[in-house]
Write a structure and sequence with these properties.
By secondary structure, the chain is of the alpha+beta class. The chain is built from two helices and ten strands. It has helices spanning 94-111, 123-139; strands spanning 3-8, 12-17, 22-28, 33-39, 42-47, 51-56, 75-76, 82-87, 143-147, 155-159. The strands form three sheets. It has a four-stranded mixed beta sheet with strand order 1-2-3-7, with no helix packed on it. A four-stranded antiparallel beta sheet has the order 4-5-6-8, with no helix packed on it. A two-stranded antiparallel sheet has the order 9-10. The longest helix is centred in the middle third of the chain and has 18 residues, at 94-111. The N and C termini lie far apart (44 Å). 14% of the residues are buried.
């Protein structure tokens, strides 16, 4: 059976049967989700609190949705059938303000690097962006190394050494950007600009 998992800002996670286009299961989450991953019979959901929670997908074997907009066979709350196995505790008070300022400065510094890939003119900037990414990941506790394929931009490989018995989750992303066509921008694309507090 082919199944699609979706998470939403209304703090829900839904499982859809792709053959019948029906919702098989709805999970009400405790916080707004930011990402989800289905891996080896489990659902992993990250949220805005910095938590990653895991649900076993055994319940899908029993689920039979009644159609879009209809009722669901069952609902799971955020406290049922799951465990939270990773939790980043956000600092509070003055520590929270200092942390927010530090994160904003990291963002400004990162955006200021014109890491435009595919152009020899910006090759050194791409290397700088790779080093910047590596240093940030190291500050977060990762073991990092840079791989330098011949004639290509560096690859940053980072590993968080956790429980060796736990499943491995891989996140893949990029630190480089495409040409910005800067004259068409109202604001400099390589500079953080605050408008009306945002």
């Amino acid at each position: 059976r082919e199944v699609l998992c979706s998470v939403s800002l209304d703090q829900t996670c839904r499982f859809w049967d792709l053959h019948t286009y029906t919702c098989m299961q709805l999970i009400k989450l405790a916080a707004v989700p930011t990402s989800s991953l289905v891996y080896q019979g489990s659902l992993y959901v990250g949220n805005v609190r910095g938590e990653i929670s895991e649900w076993s997908l055994d319940f899908l074997e029993e689920s039979e949705g009644e159609g879009l907009g209809g009722t669901y066979s069952s609902r799971l709350s955020a406290s049922e059938g799951h465990r939270t196995f990773f939790n980043l505790q956000a600092p509070k008070g003055k520590g929270a303000r200092d942390s927010e300022r530090a994160l904003l400065q990291y963002l400004k510094d990162f955006i200021a690097i014109p890491s435009i890939s595919g152009s020899k003119e910006y090759k050194e900037h791409c290397f700088h962006a790779a080093k910047f990414t590596s240093r940030i990941l190291e500050k977060c506790g990762a073991v990092t190394r840079m791989i330098k394929p011949e004639g290509k931009n560096p690859i940053v490989l980072a590993r968080f050494e956790m429980d060796p018995e736990a499943p491995t989750i891989t996140f893949y992303g990029h630190y480089d950007v495409q040409p910005a066509n800067e004259p068409s921008w109202k604001y400099n694309p390589f500079e953080v600009t605050t408008i009306d507090g945002y």
